[in-house]
Write a structure and sequence with these properties.
Elements: E1 14-17, H1 23-31, E2 37-39, H2 46-53, E3 56-61, H3 69-74, E4 80-83, H4 93-98, E5 102-104, H5 111-126, H6 129-137, E6 155-159, H7 163-174, E7 178-182, E8 194-195, H8 199-205, E9 208-211, H9 225-228, E10 235-239, H10 248-256, E11 260-265, E12 289-291, H11 300-320, E13 341-348, H12 353-364, E14 368-375, E15 379-386, H13 391-399, E16 404-410
Parallel strand pairs: 1-2, 1-3, 3-4, 4-5, 6-7, 6-9, 7-8, 9-10, 10-11, 11-12
Antiparallel strand pairs: 13-15, 13-16, 14-15
The structure holds nicotinamide-adenine-dinucleotide (NAD) and (2R)-2-hydroxypentanedioic acid.
Pathway: Amino-acid biosynthesis; L-serine biosynthesis; L-serine from 3-phospho-D-glycerate: step 1/3
Keywords: NAD, Oxidoreductase
Pfam families: 2-Hacid_dh, 2-Hacid_dh_C, ACT_AHAS_ss
């Protein structure tokens, strides 16, 4: 299929990619005809972020760049944001929705990479490899088997049985672990995994706990001092979800008191924005603790696939209006345009807008060849496939309608 033309020429659309997004995304944009691609290796904030967003139509971020309501409101030309990762908690999705900015992510391209690191970390912790490694580097030869165990036959407790949690469960069973899980939703158990009805029982029954919940208000401090007090027998804790899910000071206390026997943390409440910033944590130099710099999904395979996935969604949205997978404006799956022009109208979801769209169309006496609508609580998204001769007049009229957030045309 030859690339679609857009009313706004692609070579004039600025694409900004932050946080070392994979070259696969750059290649996809270039192949689709986008030439203004600006790449930055780290996250941006404050004036620097506002400045690059002044004339950006498309923005790509990973987990560090905070797209607050203020930032989104200032980015007047922004049409779509791609989170080149799973998490979307760094974006104010409500503000993006209200501004008519479509937000996509890559819901599963790095799940396998995270799941592999969880299994690797569990084995490292249960063998107390962090301490042995440190000792060997310091010239000490400690061959003792004390407190080092096989993972076979131990029970893994998975908190959050979604894409990653369930994949960890499959890998864990394949090397002889028993698996239980706790999820707020009713989830189909894979393999021989068993659902447990409450977090306390899961913690008490497991030897290793691994966290795979999303970063939301509900999961903030989910593992607080009270929950961490349910660890009494030296269980191991792995967190590769979001940093603020665990109260770090309370975790340190539990490690110091040996109620928790070791921990692997890939995410932290405060993470450096780039390589130049220093990383500090109360858990540095605590025995049997593995600290990694938020690299659960950082493999070449995962990053390449994420680049392809998210750039594909962004290009499709810009060039066809299809918003399937959007986390902000309503989702619409659209057919190919057949010898028509397409108008995309995003508006506040208040009564009267749809009837006004239809009344304008009937007054102009235009031929509508396809009409698609999707709404959420705040916003409505209408797509009209329209005869080529009528499209520009119709767009002009639709732009005048009260409560219009944005309107654009594709041809
Ligand atoms: N460390 C990394 O590099 C890395 C990489 C990828 C994803 N992540 C993070 O991993 C987490 C999980 O990702 P995913 O793709 O599996 O998400 P997902 O949405 O597929 O699964 C999350 C699961 O958690 C459950 N859940 C929500 N609230 C819960 C609660 N309070 N208690 C128990 N269960 C709860 C949900 O019902 C869902 O089943 C996310 O926070 C994501 O941002 C981290
Ligand atoms: O690549 C990143 O910055 C974030 C990775 C991970 O936390 C995700 O949400 O996919």
């Amino acid at each position: 299929m030859s690339p679609l033309k857009t009313s706004f020429p692609k070579h004039k659309m600025k694409v900004v990619l932050l946080e070392s997004i994979s070259q696969s995304a750059v290649e996809s944009f270039k192949k689709a005809g986008y030439t203004q691609i600006e790449q930055h290796s780290g996250a941006l904030s404050g004036e620097e972020l506002d400045e690059v967003l002044k004339d950006a139509k498309i923005l790509g971020v990973r987990s560090k760049t905070q797209l607050t309501e203020e930032v989104i409101q200032k980015a007047k030309k922004l049409v779509a944001v791609g989170c080149f990762c799973i998490g979307t908690n760094q974006v104010d999705l409500e503000a993006a929705n209200k501004a008519g900015v479509c937000v996509f992510n890559a819901p599963f391209s790095n799940t396998r990479s995270v799941a592999e690191l969880v299994i690797a970390s569990a084995i490292m912790l249960i063998r107390r490899i962090p301490d042995k490694d440190k000792a060997a580097h310091a010239g000490e030869w400690d061959k003792s088997s004390e407190n080092a165990h096989e993972i076979r036959g131990k029970r893994l407790g998975v908190v959050g049985y979604g894409h990653i949690g369930s994949q960890v469960s499959i890998l864990a069973e394949s090397i002889g672990l028993k698996v239980s899980y706790y999820d707020v939703e009713n989830k189909l158990p894979l393999g021989n995994a068993e659902a447990v009805g409450d977090l306390k029982t899961l913690i008490e029954e497991s030897d290793i706990l691994t966290l795979h919940v999303p970063g939301t208000q509900e999961t903030k401090n989910l593992f607080n001092a009270e929950v961490l007090s349910w660890f009494t027998k030296g269980q191991l804790l792995i967190n590769m979800s979001r940093g603020d899910v665990v109260d770090i000071q309370a975790l340190k206390k539990a490690l110091d008191e040996e109620r928790i026997g070791g921990a692997a943390l890939d995410v932290f409440p405060e993470e450096p924005k780039n390589k130049a910033e220093k990383f500090t944590s109360p858990l540095q130099n605590v025995p049997n603790v593995i600290l990694t710099p938020h690299i659960g999904g950082s493999t070449e395979e995962a990053q390449w696939n994420i680049g392809v996935d998210v750039s594909g969604k962004l290009i499709k949205y810009i060039e066809s209006g299809a918003s399937l997978g959007s986390h902000s404006i309503p989702e619409l799956s659209l057919p190919k345009m057949e010898d028509t022009h397409r108008i995309l109208h995003i508006h506040k979801n208040v009564s009267g807008v749809l009837s006004e769209i239809n009344s304008k169309i009937s007054k102009l006496n235009v031929n509508i060849l396809g009409q698609y609508l999707s709404t959420n609580f705040e916003v409505g998204y209408v797509v009209l496939d329209i005869s080529k001769n009528d499209s520009l007049d119709t767009l002009k009229e639709l732009k005048k309608i009260d409560h219009t957030i944005s309107a654009r045309i594709l041809y």
